[in-house]
C-alpha cells in the first residue's frame, strides 16, 4: 500500500515514473488517488486521474467518471485516454460522457479508447461524433472507427 504522501510526492514530479508507481498501487489506494484527482492543482489532479486509470482496477472507474464531468479539460483528456485500461461495463458511463464532450482533444481520446475496447455498443455515440465533427481530425477518427466496425 502506498501512502497519500508517497503518492503526492511521486505524482508531483515533472515526469512521474508511472511504471514504478503502478507497481505499488493497490485497490485500497484508490481513495487517496480520488482525493488527489479532486485537488485544486489541476496538473496534480490530472496525473492522479491518469494513474488511477492506468491501474486497470475496477474501483478506478468512479475516479474516471468524476473526472469526465470536471470543468478542466486536462482531467477529461486523462480520463478519456485511460478508459481503455478499464475492463467491463463500468467504462461505458464515462465514455458516453466523454464522447459527447465539447472539447475536441477529449473526444479524440474517447474515440480512441472506444475503438481500442471495440465497444460497438457505443455506435450511436460514435456516429454522433462523426457527424458533429465532420471535416476535422476527430470526425475523421470516428468515421474510420465506424468503417472498421462494418
Question: Structural class of the secondary structure composition?
Answer: mainly alpha
- The sequence of SSEs as H and E is HHHHHHHHHH
Please give the alpha-carbon distance between the first and last residues.
Answer: 45 Å
Rg over alpha carbons: 15 Å
The biggest sheet, with number of strands, parallel, antiparallel or mixed sense and barrel status, is: none
Strand % is: under 5%
Shape: elongated
Give the overall average pLDDT: 94
Number of helices: 10
**Tally of distinct domains:** 1
- Give the full name of the CATH homologous superfamily: Leucine-rich Repeat Variant
As residue ranges, the low-confidence spans are none
CATH class: Mainly Alpha
Named CATH topology: Leucine-rich Repeat Variant
Outline the structure in words.
- The protein has a single domain (4-148), classed as Leucine-rich Repeat Variant.
- 65% of the residues lie in helices and 0% in strands.
- Helix 4 crosses helix 5 (60-68), helix 5 packs parallel to helix 7 (92-99) and helix 6 packs across helix 7 (92-99).
- It has helices at residues 4-12, 18-22, 30-37, 42-55, 60-68, 73-82, 92-99, 104-116, 123-132, 137-148.
- The longest helix has 14 residues, at 42-55.
- The model has no long low-confidence stretch (mean pLDDT 94).
- With 150 residues, it is mostly helical.
- The chain is elongated and about 45 Å long.
- It contains 10 helices and no strands.
Amino acid at each position: 500500500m502506498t501512502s497519500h504522501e508517497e503518492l503526492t510526492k511521486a505524482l508531483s514530479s515533472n515526469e512521474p515514473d508511472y511504471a514504478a508507481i503502478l507497481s505499488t498501487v493497490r485497490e485500497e489506494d484508490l481513495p487517496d488517488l480520488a482525493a488527489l484527482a479532486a485537488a485544486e492543482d489541476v496538473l496534480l489532479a490530472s496525473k492522479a486521474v491518469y494513474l488511477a486509470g492506468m491501474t486497470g482496477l475496477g474501483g478506478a472507474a468512479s475516479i474516471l467518471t468524476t473526472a469526465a464531468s470536471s470543468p478542466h479539460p486536462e482531467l477529461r483528456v486523462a480520463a478519456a485516454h485511460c478508459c481503455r485500461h478499464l475492463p467491463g461495463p463500468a467504462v461505458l458511463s464515462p465514455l458516453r460522457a466523454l464522447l459527447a464532450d465539447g472539447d475536441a482533444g477529449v473526444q479524440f481520446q474517447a474515440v480512441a479508447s472506444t475503438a481500442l475496447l471495440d465497444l460497438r455498443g457505443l455506435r450511436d455515440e460514435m456516429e454522433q461524433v462523426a457527424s458533429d465533427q465532420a471535416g476535422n481530425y476527430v470526425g475523421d477518427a470516428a468515421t474510420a472507427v465506424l468503417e472498421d466496425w462494418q
